[in-house]
User: Fold these one by one.
Assistant:
Number 1:
Amino acid sequence: MERITVGFLGCGNIGCGVYKLLETYGEEIFRNEGVAFDVKKILVRSLGKKRSWNIPAHLLTDHPDEVLDDPEIAVVMEFMGGEEPASSYMIRALEGGKTVVTANKMALASNWNAIVSAAREHGAGLYYEASVCGAIPVIRAINDSLQANRITSVMGIINGTTNYILSRMSQEGAAYEDVLADAQKLGLAEPDPTADVEGYDAAYKLSILSTLAFHRHVPVECIYREGITGITPLDVQCGKEFGLTLKLLGVAKEEDGKIQARVHPTFVRSSHPLAGVSDAFNAVYVNGHACGEMMFYGRGAGDMPTASALVSDLIKAAHTKRHPLPAVNDVPCEIAEDWSCVHFVRMKAKDEPGVLALVSGQFAQYGVSISSMVQKGDRDADGYVQVIFLTHEASERAVRSALAALPAEKVCIGSIIRVEGE
């Protein structure tokens, strides 16, 4: 029988979920996997805080040294969240030769080189399946199952909060602010939802996914990011009339040696597999040159789904004699500053002769071809009408330049939303 001594950094809902799994499912893990885990110390901010699972008081400490410097602790599991002090503690544990298991996408994405280097230099294990999409084993698949593939694109719904909001807006025609308030009441959105609705959470996850998929480090600060706060029910409804479903997607592609990495509201065809992913579920759509297209789907957040992925990593680490490191080479990553796709453009245009010809002529001047155009409703009190365009595939830079050149007294731009999965 093999016994592994474990220390926790943090013990919020996820940490309690891991402890619960180890306590209630530990005997079955031993029968199935031949390894047992003993939690020796748990670093917490407050020793007296009431927790969602009964944690024995003698395990708790508010001194990080009792976890990081204990020679008996072989594996450190990090549940603190945030960049610091989590990053520094993980690096310190790795430098001490301890395996680290984490779900912390912010710390990992923001300090990728430092954390991975510490693991490499000290021969320590680094496991982070739960950092992207909770219980969905997409990192395991990219690292362990798809090595014979040159992955050309990764596209995913990797934030459950925004998917819940956009799903409700689509299903009910509800306003963003109303659905956000409901999500906060249900605990699906934080009191300060910025990390989710402005795309920061998805950008951290996309940095990790794209780095692994393309074997080059894609820094999180190089990812184009745009949130959903400007999305209106009209955008969602007009998209549906074009056969499109709106999602906040992380999109990463490798083309001509450059990597596109972007997070933004995105329309996909309603027949696309990602269009059917509703509520707080996540999904990642991967395209490899040998395997073709595949999608990983499931619960991307929540205490127990995340705890499931963390314990899975813990078991894998226990069985591994030589810990693998991310297959990321030292070739510099060149980020594409422009990309091409179909664009959905909603604008208000003066209802007078020649305005639509002006718009289409301006598009043509920048090499943007219009695929479809519809007018929504009657003219308003100021003499404007809502007009929606779908372009053919066109450069982002060209579309932006064409719209910027339109006279403000004739045209007011409402939304520019990319369309993927054509």
Number 2:
Amino acid sequence: MWNKKAVFIEIKEYLMIAICSIPYGLVVNQVLVPHAIIGGGLTGLCEILYFATDSALPIWLSSLVLNVVLIVIAIIVLGWKTCVRTLWGILCLTVWLKLFPISDHAQISDPFMAIVLAGIFNGAGLGLIYAYNGNTGGTDIIAMIVNKYKHMPMGRALFMVDMVIIGSAWFLPQVTRVEQILFGLCYVFIEAQAVDWVMGRGRQSVQFFIFSKKYKEIADAIMTRTGRGVTFLEAKGAYTQQESRVIVLLTRKSESTAIFRIVMEIDPSAFISETQTRGVFGLGFEPIKERT
């Protein structure tokens, strides 16, 4: 039986993957290629093929062919369920690379400013794609396969592949300055930071440990005024040997000020520990999703 809510969420995620892959096509065709800057990943390799063949091999075509080869390997190694969204991301990226023309001249004349803006723009798009359980194929597939068999972190695997691709650009006649290689490295770094920022921005949560003799009053006030649930942990002071309870609370970072205010109003002598969490999933926070 169809679950309407689940179907709606699925359609929304596929739609967002399609929309958020638009920056990728724009950045490659309007920024990187006009400046002869090789970005990382499979698209960077496609840029190298484009320049090496004097524009005879379109980037969108080489990207599609190489991605098809990789997705076939991934289906065999990882299973088709893991690759459904990857295939959709590949199709979307191919469409945008085809639709957006390659500029004869750079839209932004300063190459450094161009790669900064491109890295932020494209990284934000990729971050949203990852947040919606998608990816655009390419070296992501290689990293997933390497991670399965070698247990190497995906970030390290991607970094190593990017370094090889960007370094290979030095042998292209269009790359006449070492700065172009450095710009490529800077672009990959900025893009990665933007991806992390976007993915982490929506998941900024904090964990509180609140030590107070008035734990019951504080807990009731937090639940009443913020709607957040709390948990009691049984505790015993090592020095005083007195038994007490510690309040444990997970909440959004934006709500932390309200928590501090509540505690200070009830017990100014309370002891509070606040730590940032990488991600909190479940009721009231991020939905628990399985990558398909």
Number 3:
Amino acid sequence: MAKSDVKKFIIYALFLGILIVPMVGFPGTRFEASRALTIWGGVVGILALWLVSKTVRRNDMYRRTATRLEPLKNNILRRFSKLPIRYYILILLFVVAVYPLLANNYMIDVGITCLIYIVLGLGLNIVVGLAGLLDLGYIAFYAVGAYSYSLLNLHFGISFWLSLPIGMVVGAIFGCIIGYPTLRMRGDYLAIVTMGFGEIIRLVLNNWDKLTKGPNGLLGMAKPEVVYPVFTDGGLSWGVYSIKSLHALYYLIFIIAVLTVVGVRRLDNSRIGRAWVAIREDEVAAELSGVPTIWLKLLAYAMGAAFASVVGAFFAAKLSYTNPNFFIFMESCIVLCIVVLGGVGSIPGIILAGIVLIAVPEVFREFQDYRMFAFGLAMAAMMVLRPEGLIPASRRKREFHETEQLTSEDLNDGG
């Protein structure tokens, strides 16, 4: 066991002790040392197991065994890889489709929330993952979609389905308005400006009482309705089905999520998507190569905002209520964490991260006092142990491995 690893273990254990012991030691007014030390000891034990596994992986016997088992591992992976990817997609779609038939209402509602955040993550992936523009005010477009449907339905009686394209256009316009002043900005400056615009929109919604009812919010929006033909003895008539049950709402957001995945994937594989990647990698080189960087950046903001507006309209229709406090800065952080944790530019990674970050805390709701601590600790651990994300995109994965390969070659050359 290397001395550097032992030193890191001691530092991490003390740091976790400083955080955990005061946090969990006061369930009431008195400090419970045994409870605090037990929880801290469990976390330190997990850290110790990680250190032991890291040491074992460096052992020559482990490496020889791993080398001998490599052909078996490759054979298993080869057999799984022979199965076309469409079969895995069909299995996943089947599991998600039958989920509400096997779950209770609470878990169905959790599933709806997961799908909402997955769509938001996919929309932000266009801006952050493909175009490389750090947007910390993305949740503002979610609010624009919610309030667009609410105002159109309450004041003009426009249905949910007609409000969707209008909301997408309004969201895209707001995306361009917010994106235009940031076209020449990068890095921290871009993040600060987008965060400021996001807060401006929330404060406007919170203070424009005559239009948005301020902090009281808007109430009474109609649920989505589906018209279907009914054949009777008197001939053909039309029936109306209101999508208001949790099962029906789940399938509606499921369809929206599937269409979003298809749309984002098509954009990723298109010429526009490749131009966005070129801007992300080197904007100056892309511009010199003839890529219209200004228009493509605006298009990235507009497309990401349009997807957020759609799911915002669904959110308002689901609750029949909307409030500016639903769209705080923390929501933008959660969506950005989904993109980073899943893997920047990776659609499967964002889907998995959306489920992990939204569903897992709901399952362990009895530990809600420590959810944010566990959330931050998991994010920090992921950035250290797997910076490319849970399921990295092929481009990003090659970038990380190329860096590691160059580093190892430089060390060998230096030795």
Number 4:
Amino acid sequence: MVWTKIKESLKETLADNVFQLWIDPLQFEQLQGDRLYLSGPDRYFSAYVKQNFSSVIEDKLQENGLESTKIIFCEKSREQVSAPSTRKSVPGTQMRLPRVPENNSKFRALHPRYTFDEFMVGDCNILAESACRSMVAEDGLVGPCLYINSGTGLGKSHLTNAVAHQVFTESPMTRLHYLTAKQFAAEMIRGIQTKTMDDFKRKYQEKCDILLVEDVHSLTGKKKTQEELNDILDTLIKSGKRVILTSKTTPGDLIGIDSEFCSRMTSGLVTTMKAPDVKTRYRIVEKKALQQQLILDEELVGYLASHVRGDVRKIESALIAVRARARLAGGHVDLDLVREVVASVVGVSQILTATMISELVSGQFNVSVKELQSKSRKKAITTPRQIAMYLARKYTEESLADIGKAFNRDHSTVLHSIKVVSKKLVRDTSVNAQLEILSNKVKQL
């Protein structure tokens, strides 16, 4: 079959993990005229494949003599996705035991790599990760409701996927519903339009053991949806069921959300996931590089971890670019290549250090860097030294000890300098104005 040959060719072209994740799940539906119909697990999966892999698939079509063939992504054929029949079971089919509830779980397509084993734990997310494990174990440490908030790309979806994976592995008959707040709202509207709201409420209130709802901040201003979800949460929580909610903001920062609904969402643990620190980013780079089949030494891993900040998707983007450019360079990866990727793809050319800030401050106060590093206690030297230490602590991720080394001091001296400058900021407006000017210059480095 043509599609089989194309898949074999794609397997040789793409990385194994990329092929297994995005190409292998595609199913051949039909070849009709100049159109090749393919289907994926869901429309979101198909949309991603269409956006990112259409061109490479079309190239393989041309190589197989199908130059003018277009790729059409469609829904799976009805025979594949039709609901289980209510007719009597036939030999070879699974039968339910009496009084065992039908597993009517509904969930988004789970990402195969979004498991607990693949999640990088650090100080920035350890509470959220342990809370999700607690929800799976039902040990009662978190309570029936967990609220996780963080910025984009910091691992909320990874954890909710991990919960679903673990629940289905340990308790396959658990009735789990996993969807976004927008999907919940759309389903409720269909229920109202088709006059099936009783079925809708029964589904979530009576036929649900664990509910995962992502992006509850998107319910802003949707009063009716908030009321329905609030009623469902109330029923589930009182019944001892489990609920996990995610949002990009803390409950207190949610705007256009009913106070009663907000109170219900925060009836259990509320935890915030922050951007990963340098140590966590280092481990993430190592793990993602391994997945991309990239061999990076400690220096290259350290450079990427130090320079690519923010969400994990930036790290993935940088590593994909490194891998692509390494292929063009015959597989060789060096520091110059990594620097080029960081500068062009991530948009960061260098990371701030205490040394860089000391050089800036020395020029501003007309003293040398050696004088800042000296043992001199003259006010003309100590003041800029203290300001430089203060700025280094504020704008770099270096530890107190590392900042101290840049000035030939220990961490206690740095801590003292930070306290001195902080007090001057409150009392002296001229110092405040001077630091504002220096801060703007630091941001431009």
